[in-house]
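Assess this one:
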Amino acid sequence: MAGPLAGLRVVELVALGPAPFAAMVLADLGAEVVQVHRPPAGDPADQPVGDPAAGDPSQVLSRGKRSIAVDLRTPEGRELVLRLVADADVVLEGFRPGVVERLGVGPDECLARNPGLVYGRMTGWGQEGPLSRTAGHDIDYLALTGALWAIGRPPAPPVPPVNLVADFGGGAMVLVAGVLAALLSVRSGGPGQVIDAAMVDGAALLTTLVWGLRAQGLWGDRRGENLLDGGAPFYDVYECADGRFLAVGALEPQFYAELVQRTGFDDGGLAQLDVARWPQLRVRWAELFASRSRDEWVELLEGSDTCVAPVLDWDEASEHPHMRARGTFVDVAGVRQPAPAPRFSVTPAPTPAAPVAVGCDTDGVLSALGVTPEEVARLRAAGVVR
């Protein structure tokens, strides 16, 4: 194993949502992650191996992990998982509140087996509160925090930012931060503990700067009229002559001045920060950028401090020279995807291993727990494991 988290043992009780992504990040950084799946229906030979395109698309989030298939509804299956937890550092689960308790592998049972355990829980609404037991998705969590209100330009409705903000930013990445913080506490002599990572909390956390700007009167409640939401003509996306787009982020005066100088822009005497004149300034910039193709503008501006970048599609992004030079994208099992991040100077993250079929590591993991081959065969025949 390589990576800064080499030696860390994680048990992932597989569920939908961003918890698998959080576990993937830990695996990318060198942790040994064992996924506990429910036994799949049908013939095991029909389960796709290392080919997310052939099965569940979310299987790509299983890269670098091992998989066992255990029926937690059986007492023997539950006991096997608790034995696995007893030797782990972290447990991650992403079910609705109360589900793992009913299965007998909740925080109380797991911490009783392993008092130094970090038990990470990922939900949309949190473990408590009026909405805690209701369904939801990224768009709903953003809506309740005010974040969705700020995205988009009237008179059109607010625009969902894919599912990157609540699911993966406010959810998975905040959970990873919580896990690592709790591990530091445990390794400093503290007890194990439970992390309640709610996507609604994390999404709200990501808007902290906006709340500060609002308090200073520097952010209005009408979307599309503020400095960072497309309201400023020097921080926006413009269509070019070929129908493709440029992202312009020349916020600072020195960068804006360089953009004006390099493009030959005629500002008509309109000052950059004269908010009342921003609509007029936007019209002038839109006319200028529409006069050339996107790549003609890139040829003129790339490598400068104008803070301008082409808006690339998925294929273009993975082939961009900067991305290729840094190895930002890799191919795993024939699927192009982002490489592990961030970078480490002494303990670099390993190259991700391909996703595996559900349950393909069951025998090896159980053997490491001391389960004999005969017992494994009996459990398999009883349908407890696959």
Observations:
- The chain is about 35% helix and 15% strand.
- Residues 164-187 form the longest helix (24 residues).
- Confidence is low (pLDDT under 50) at residues 45-54.
